[in-house]
Structures are given as structure tokens and as C-alpha cells.
Design goal:
Layout: H1 2-6, H2 13-45, H3 53-102, H4 105-110, H5 113-155, H6 157-204, H7 206-211, H8 215-268, H9 273-315, E1 335-342, E2 353-360, E3 365-370, H10 376-381, E4 391-396, E5 399-400, H11 406-411, E6 413-416, E7 425-426, H12 427-431, H13 440-449, H14 453-458, E8 466-467, H15 476-488, E9 494-498, H16 506-519, E10 524-528, E11 540-545, E12 548-553, H17 555-561, H18 563-573
Parallel strand pairs: 3-10, 3-11, 6-9, 9-10
Antiparallel strand pairs: 1-2, 1-4, 4-5, 7-8, 11-12
Helix pairs in contact: 2-3, 2-5, 2-9, 3-5, 5-6, 5-9, 6-8, 6-9, 8-9, 13-15, 17-18
């Protein structure tokens, strides 16, 4: 995990090295001040020959200089530490986002959306704070502790043994604290995922929530998620708080012991007043640094859980990647499924697609129809290699899709999915997702083919109308037509329409299909639909049933020999039914 994470300090190595160096400067200057104070008392104020003002002024000046250098070291350490930790966080977020972009659908299925959001926000923020603490306090506190202990042992080893006892006691307390709190912090971030999922789902589906008057249910669900998070944090905090009184008790007990035994040594002539003063100063320094180290361990315990979650994303390897010597030429839009078998999970008892044999000529229009759950979408997802087959192979242009460069292959395959997505920006910005260099005239032409031009021109700003996040200011049918236009701008060899005209009326649907036939005759078109009217004029129609191909043929052929198709046609044209409601015989 550490190796995976520390790679991402690149670009901020100078700041990462400078921070501890400045912190060491601060520590050394702070450690000199008690020694200078000791000299001021013993050789200046308590001088047997009388107070030596020159020595007092000299020591005072040196103490001021040390204080200023310590202040400079602390300030510069803070500046460089902030730069290094912020840069580390930026690199982590960039690296995670870049790796997520390489994920196949199978990879994305392993992580929830809320989980990825938590990793890129809360988890990275925890690591950022921890990294800054490591650079500053992790160097400052141990070094300060070691130097202070060394100096006190040199002053009086017998009196310094009190510190050793205090340090040993608090170390045992910290060991048990870390073991107890670690398990709670590991659970906390899973609860963060649940909390984010609740918020994300509610905001995304706010219209449904309000339509069904489920606000109180959503509020109670959110409160349960926050209560779970609160309960875990409370358990961890109780453990941490319980240590604080023990640490303060140890500090005060050490001060009392040093004062008592030290005073007796001063009276007995074993210790000077300056030595006692410096020992008391170092006492506070040692024990306060020990408290800092305790806080560091707690923070590191929390950040370890975050680090593991981030490392999971960074080390996740895409299940679909380019071959060693990828093919960058797609000859045509022909598609061949050769004895294809596919499952979303290796643990599945039954494959989603089973023994699929289908051969589609370039430029052919293919309708794909079937009941809900018949794996129509799963079939076309294999063409652009959004998933890989378990057995058999899928070929495009006569070549196995696994031999192609992914970007080249997907650039030749345009998909209008069931769930249409528009991004915040103007209509033109969204259309140019299909071709970033498309002119406005090309965008207009694509919209005319998709029957979107008329409603776009009805907007006050036309093609410069801003689309809100998620396309909330356009209707479902308008969104579908904009997505079809966007797909057309790619000028693909293969165009897949996955139930993408379900929200438009049948007349508009017919116009879109007619425009496709006239304007892009050489493009292979696959039309998935629940409506027979959307596919009946296709060159061939594929009837899917329970992950298998039930039949393939023209509308007339299927009406004669395929009971599933003919019953559906009758149900939709006579009985006003749909594909999942078979007509009565």
C-alpha cells in the first residue's frame, strides 16, 4: 500500500524534503533555549562573584535568536508541508480518476458510485492531513523527544529516569489504544459509503421521492445512516478521550516528581537551580511531544483505513485492455458472433448469453427484440468490447474485437444507451461529444436526421441553449433525440440504438428510421426495441428469449414461423399490449 501511495508525491519531492528539515531546525533551536536559560541562571544570575549582566544579556540575545530561528523553521515547515500534502492529494485524485477511466464495466461493478466518491473526497482528505502531519509532527515530535531525553540524561540521569517510566507507561497505553480504535475506523468508511449512497440516490431521484410523498422515509433512512456513523465515531472517540486524562495525570505526576526530587537535590548540592529549571522545561517538552505522538498514531490509524481503500482503486487493473500489438484498422461494419457465451460473474450458475451464433453484413439494418431480461443489451455490449466474452468470440470487420485498439474500435461503434446521459453545457457542447471538431452545420445536420432540429430552434438560444446537469431541462424524448444526433456525429461504421426511441412517438420514430436508411446506408444499424413497429422494416429481426436467439428473419418470415414474434405483433397492433404481454390465441 505504501509503495502504491508514495509514488504520487512526484512533483512535490522538494517540498516533502524541505518540510522535515525546517522542522528539525525548529526542534534544535527549541532544545537550545533551556540550556541557554540554565547558563543564564547558573553563570549569570547565581554567579558566586555576583550577577554577570554581560553574560545575562548574551544568553538572552542568544535565546531570542534561537526563538526567531525556531519561529522561521516552524513557519517554513508549515508552508512547505501544506504544499506537499495538497500536491499529494491532487496527485492521488488525478491518478484515481485516470485509472477509473480505464475501468471496464466489470471493474466499475466492483465499486459502488458512492464508494468511489468517498475515496476521492473523504479518504483523500484524511491522507492529505496525515501526510502533512507525518512531514511536520512525525519528524518534529520524535526528534524533539529524543534530543530532550538525551540532554536530561546528561544533566542528571537519576532524575531523568522519571521520564523513562512515564514514557514506558504511556507507550503501553498507546499500543492498546491503536489496536482498539483501528477496527472502528475500518468500519467508519464503509458507513461513509452508505451515507453518500443515500444522499446520491435521493438527489438523483428527487422527483420520484416527491411524487410518492416519500420525504419522511428518505429522511429516516438518512438519519439511520448518520446514526450508524455517529455510533462508530463515538466508540472511537470514547477510547481516545479516555487516554487524555491518563496522559495529563502522567504529565502532572512527572512534574511533581521532578520538582520534589529535584528540590531535594538542589538543597543537597547535587543539582544546580539552572539544572532544575531546564529539567522542568524539558519535562513539559518530552511529555507534550509524547501526546503529539499519540495523536499521530490515532491519525495514522484512521488514514491507514483510507489508504487501503484508495490503493484498491489505484491498483485495480482493467479487465479489458489493449493487446500487445493492437490492430488499428476496422475494415467495415460487419459483425459476427461465433458460439458466444457470456456471464457478468464467474460465480453465475447460468450464462446471460448462451451459444449465440449471428452474422451481420456491413450496412445491414438489424432489429433486436425480446422480453425484459432476454439479454438484448448484453448482446450489443459485446460489440464495443464493454465486456469480454467467456467463450467463443465476437468479430467486427472480420477480426476478433480483442485484437483491436480499444479507442479505435469504440470510435467506430456509436451507442445510444437505454439510459441517455447529457452533460452540463450547451447543446452544441453535448453534440460535440460525438466529434469534438464538428462544425455547427454538421451538428445541425445530425440533429435534422435525429428529428431534434425543430425543438432545438424553439429554444430562445437555439443550439447555444444550456443543458442543466443530467439534462433535467429537456424531456425524455428530446434527450433521446439529442443522444442519437450525438452518436451520428461520430460517423460510425456501427450504430447501436438500445431502446433509444422509446420516449418518442411512432411518427417521429419512423422519420428517424427513414433518415437512417437514406443518409447512412453503409452504416450497420442495430435497433433494440420493445416495439415491433420500430424493427419491422429492418433487413432482419433477431428474436431473443432467455439469453438465446429464438429466431432470425424478416418481418414476414417471423410472422409465419415464430410464435413469440407473431403473438407480440398481434398484441401490440390489435390488443394494444407490449412484448412482455403475449396476445391471446
Amino acid at each position: 500500500m505504501l509503495k502504491t501511495l508514495m509514488v504520487h508525491i512526484r512533483g512535490f519531492v522538494r517540498e516533502s524534503v524541505a518540510t522535515p528539515l525546517f522542522m528539525i531546525l525548529e526542534v534544535l533551536m527549541e532544545m537550545l533555549i533551556p540550556l541557554l536559560m540554565k547558563s543564564m541562571i547558573d553563570n549569570g544570575i547565581e554567579n558566586p562573584a555576583g550577577a554577570d549582566m554581560g553574560h545575562i544579556v548574551l544568553m538572552g540575545g542568544l535565546m531570542l535568536l534561537c526563538a526567531l530561528l525556531a519561529l522561521l523553521g516552524g513557519a517554513m515547515g508549515g508552508v512547505f508541508g501544506a504544499k506537499a500534502s495538497a500536491g499529494f492529494a491532487r496527485n492521488l485524485r488525478s491518478a484515481m480518476f485516470a485509472n477509473i477511466q480505464t475501468f471496464s464495466f466489470a471493474n466499475i461493478d466492483k465499486f459502488s458510485t458512492a464508494g468511489l466518491v468517498t475515496r476521492m473526497t473523504t479518504d483523500v482528505t484524511n491522507l492529505q492531513a496525515a501526510y502533512q502531519m507525518i512531514l511536520r509532527i512525525c519528524f518534529r515530535a520524535p526528534i524533539s523527544l529524543i534530543v530532550a531525553m538525551t540532554i536530561t540524561l546528561m544533566i542528571n540521569a537519576k532524575l531523568a529516569s522519571i521520564y523513562l517510566i512515564a514514557v514506558a507507561f504511556l507507550s503501553v497505553v498507546l499500543f492498546f489504544l491503536i489496536r482498539k480504535t483501528h477496527k472502528y475506523f475500518m468500519q467508519v468508511f464503509d458507513k461513509y459509503d452508505e451515507l453518500n449512497a443515500s444522499v446520491q440516490e435521493n438527489v438523483k431521484s428527487i422527483r420520484v421521492v416527491k411524487a410518492f410523498v416519500r420525504e419522511h422515509y428518505e429522511i429516516s433512512k438518512f438519519e439511520r445512516a448518520t446514526l450508524n456513523l455517529y455510533t462508530l465515531f463515538l466508540k472511537a472517540e470514547k477510547l481516545m478521550v479516555s487516554v487524555s486524562p491518563l496522559m495529563m495525570l502522567t504529565i502532572y505526576a512527572s512534574i511533581i516528581a521532578i520538582s520534589w526530587f529535584g528540590a531535594n537535590m538542589v538543597v543537597g548540592g547535587e543539582l544546580s537551580k539552572g539544572d532544575l529549571t531546564s529539567m522542568l522545561t524539558y519535562c513539559m517538552n518530552i511529555l507534550m511531544n509524547l501526546m503529539m505522538i499519540a495523536f499521530i498514531f490515532v491519525m495514522l490509524t484512521m488514514s491507514t483505513a483510507s489508504g487501503k481503500r484508495i490503493a484498491q482503486v489505484l491498483t485495480e487493473k482493467a479487465t479489458i485492455a489493449d493487446p500487445e500489438n493492437p490492430d488499428c484498422d476496422v475494415p467495415d461494419g460487419s459483425i459476427d458472433f461465433e458460439d458466444v457465451e457470456f456471464s457478468y460473474s464467474e460465480k453465475s450458475e447460468k450464462p446471460v448469453l448462451n451459444h449465440i451464433d449471428l452474422h451481420i453484413r456491413s450496412g445491414e439494418t438489424i432489429g433486436i427484440i425480446g422480453g425484459t431480461g432476454s439479454s438484448k443489451t448484453s448482446l450489443v455490449n459485446l460489440i464495443g468490447r464493454l465486456y469480454d466474452v467467456n467463450k467463443g468470440c465476437v468479430k467486427v470487420g472480420g477480426k476478433d474485437v480483442r485484437s483491436y485498439d480499444l479507442e479505435v474500435l469504440r470510435d467506430k461503434v456509436s451507442v445510444v444507451l437505454q439510459k441517455n446521459v447529457l452533460f452540463s453545457g450547451t447543446i452544441l457542447d453535448n453534440l460535440r461529444w460525438g466529434n469534438e471538431n464538428a462544425t455547427e452545420e454538421e451538428c445541425v445536420r445530425a440533429c435534422q436526421l435525429a428529428c431534434a432540429d425543430d425543438f432545438i430552434r424553439d429554444f430562445p438560444d437555439g443550439y447555444h441553449t444550456r443543458i442543466e446537469q443530467g439534462g433535467t431541462n429537456v424531456s425524455g424524448g428530446q434527450k433521446q433525440r439529442l443522444c442519437i444526433a450525438r452518436a451520428l456525429l461520430k460517423k460510425p461504421l456501427i450504430l447501436i440504438l438500445d431502446d433509444s426511441t422509446s420516449a418518442v412517438d411512432t411518427a417521429t420514430d419512423a422519420k428517424i428510421r427513414r433518415a437512417f436508411a437514406e443518409e447512412i446506408p453503409d452504416t450497420t444499424k442495430l435497433i433494440i426495441s420493445q416495439r415491433v413497429s420500430s424493427v419491422e422494416n429492418a433487413d432482419r429481426i433477431v428474436v431473443m428469449d432467455d439469453g438465446c436467439i429464438n429466431d432470425v428473419g424478416t418481418h414476414e418470415e417471423l410472422m409465419q414461423r415464430c410464435s413469440i414474434y407473431s403473438e407480440t405483433y398481434i398484441a401490440q397492433t390489435v390488443g394494444n399490449g407490449d412484448f412482455d404481454k403475449k396476445g391471446e390465441k
